[in-house]
Amino acid sequence: MLEHTSRRLWLGICLLATCLTTAQAQEPRRVALLSTANTQAYMGAWTATFLKEAGPQKFAVTNMTSPFDAALQSQQVDDAIAQKFDVILLVIINQQSIRPALVRAKAAGVPVILVVNPGDDANDALYVSYIGVDQTELGNLAGQNLLAGLAAEGKSTAQVVAVTGTATQLNASRRLEGFRAALARQPQVTLVAVQDGRWNTALSEKITGDLLVRFAGRGGIDGVFAMADNQASGAILAIQSAGFPIGVAQKGIVVVASNCMKDGIEHIRAGTQYATNTQVPVEEARVAAVKLADFFAGKRLAHEELVPIHTITAANVAEFAQGCSY
Amino acid sequence: MTGALLRVTRAASPALLLRGGGGGALLIWALLTPGFLSRLSLLSMLSAISFVGCVTVGMGFITISGNIMSLALGATVSAASVVFMASLGAGLVPAVLIALLFGAAITAAQGVVVGYFRANAILVSIAALTLILGIAAHLTGGERIYPGGDGFAFFKGRIWMLPFETWLFAGCALAGQAILSFTRIGRDIIMTGSNREAARTVGVDVPIAVIAAYAIAGATSALAGILLAARYGSGDMDIGGGYEYRAIAAVLVGGIAIRGGAGSVLRGCAGVVVITVIEMVLRLRGYGEEWQYLITGLVLLGVVMAQSEGTRR
Amino acid sequence: MMALCRNAFARDLRPYTLLGIVIVIVGVIDHGTGFFFRGATLFSIMQIFATYGLVSLAVGLSLLVREFDISVAGMVSLAGAVAVLAGARDPWLGVGLALLVGLVGGAAQGLIITRLGLGSVGVTLGGLLSFQGLTYVLTGNQSISFDHVELALALNAPIGVVLSVRSMIVIAAFVLAAVVMQFSRVGRDILATGGDRRASTMAGVNTGGIVFGVFAASGLLCALSGVVLSYGLAAASPAALSDVLAPAAAGAIIGGVSVVGGRGRPAGIAAGVLVLCVLRSGLNAAGASADMLDIATGLVLLLIAVLDAPELARRLTEWRLHRRGA
Q1: Calpha distance C280→B130 (Å, rounded)
Q2: A40, A45, A241 ranked by CB distance to B43: nearest
Q3: A2-133+280-309: in CATH 1.10.10.10
Q4: What is the ipTM of this complex?
Q5: Residue A164, SS3 per DSSP
Q6: Which residues in chain B are closer than 8 Å to A44, comparing Cβ atoms?
């Protein structure tokens, strides 16, 4: 409540400032941040950081959230256009259903900058820039890490499975694409099954358990790509309850994920998870705030302003433990 | 005598035949699935059954009390997981009690409105669902809640070959059945569900019976939330999503009459087993999630239709 | 004065009274910014109305005959998917097929309910899961884009500041429903069936046919709603494009539909949905977050559920007597 009040107060002050200093250049730019539910850990941490950074960078942010309701988000874009915001910062919920709204924003001359979730190719001409990590790269690195883990066990031939995030979302499909591309370099490692784990820990555990059974008589599973660290956590539980060896030390099943959370850091420390990647909300939000200030200062943003990705393994886990614990 | 027997067989046969035949076919289909009988898949199935099972036991009470279902139980599972994790700092036993009480209280509140004023149960549950999600989002700000204390590692262990949660679920189901069959409040719940007015005339305190059914449902849902949170080491508002639909599906597949007043907790548990077996067989045979949704829906529709005999109004 | 107050809150006038109150409250919250009283905000309200309106009408119709159709959300998704898949070449073909699916799906549920004498909640729950499952299978668990973006833009383009083709379709359906309910025998029979089914049957009303017809109509309305939503967003998705059940049910009962059957009018339902739309738009314009909206909707829904409860009056009298006695 306090946050909302202060945000409204801030907006009020800004409006007042606008009235007082009409013709002057310092008038704060109005930013509409249209995000998914802040009930989601990643989005919550991102939004909190971005709002904190917005003050010093001198722009006023109005945050509208939509709990994964695509129709509502489309409406919010239209509302933001009508309220003549200077820029719309958008976390796309559904790539397909947002397109008409993006077309309207472009027609109205309101620039759209994407954060957190990239835009699909068909939306390419409709947004100014995407500020965030390269989702394909997250998957690709996970693939490379999985191959490295298998190599460390001395396995050159292997069967691996992927337990993905919600299959209807672009970030999940991009990561899977990148993962497949990485595996393609090692033809003896085959991806034998892909299942939709919807970013959900419990479902990922169940799926992994059933996959272990399904392939038990058919050569077994040597590696698991669970898209997020919480899903890896579920997969590891399934492998452990099944009594299979896990991790490179035991020459067991190699588990990798593609973005880090607290559970992943713990599993990497324990040796049960081989690797993950950084996708740190605090860092991404900071970069977004800086780039947005650049944009307001008249600099041209690249179509993709990518935040660098680091791979996390047992060797460097200490370095990233803090950023990943959100 | 023969006539009466004949009449009984005739009345029961279509539904019974359908259920027996369906169950038999499912069993054969499952046994023909490679890997179904492996230790691993049986264990994984037991875990899955336990989580949904706890919610199903509670949902069964609501159904039997004549109030069909509460769409808020899934959100209650999630909220209880968060409460449990957040209060672990006070110690394991207090945290478990706080979470159970929390679940029982927020669900009993629905029971108060339904029991005292006879408000529409489904609408009240939709209101409760919206409120729980809104308030939780407001309070947690979306954070996943990590344990504020330790000592729940044994939740992940096994006792005599079976997962810990399976024992708890079995205890929960047996206790539920015992309450329903052998206690006064259990009989009151059944009578209220079967005929509210008649129950009142014979001296049943109808509102109390309804509130008790809801409180039990809240407590068992909270138990599922505690088990899930302990297993995955964190609580969040996503963890119980969809459990309400799976639980009511299990209640109906198990053959608890949707109009209330009849059925048993154990029937609901049978429903959970059927649904979980179907899901597992589909997954073992390599079908995607989409087919699981469709088949569960069709099975539910079929079972509800088979209920028509004897429940004709 | 008391009487006036009581009349204003009597069931038939209640939705309009509530609508007035909500408009005043939002206006007061908003007085500083002035977003609320602009044409753009009215347009936005009508767009949200277009998303929920028909589904609310469908739920309301089923409540009128003392049943509850909870399959509505599944049918909206299914019809949207059918329309987008079948309408790739000829959008009209998609519309036709989707409406047919809605009619057949609704009629099938109606048939099962009336012929087998089953409660509607169980049957429509099976319907909900089956429709959703069918949507998942049809779309292959992917979000699908509809290539006629120009159609989406045309559907949503403002007409006379406040309306769009999309909202006009919904308004037309409401007008049609209101005319049928007010002036035809079917309308009277629906109310009679909901009021007292047994007495109506005795009086010669074909109550089975009425219930069957209501479910068929509900399916058709949801299908129309799904088509308009999916075409308007140029997309279909198995993960619902919008979460419709709670707002639809809330709209109907705020709109004065009695949950014990027999009372309520389409115009009231429209006003009930508008109450929610004004809340949503108003709180959005004031910068409140989605969770505040959830809380507000939940409270309103709970309040109305209690006010409508058949034993409320009796309990209150009992308690008053009890207190006087003590």
Answers
A1: 14
A2: A241
A3: no
A4: 0.87
A5: strand
A6: 141-143
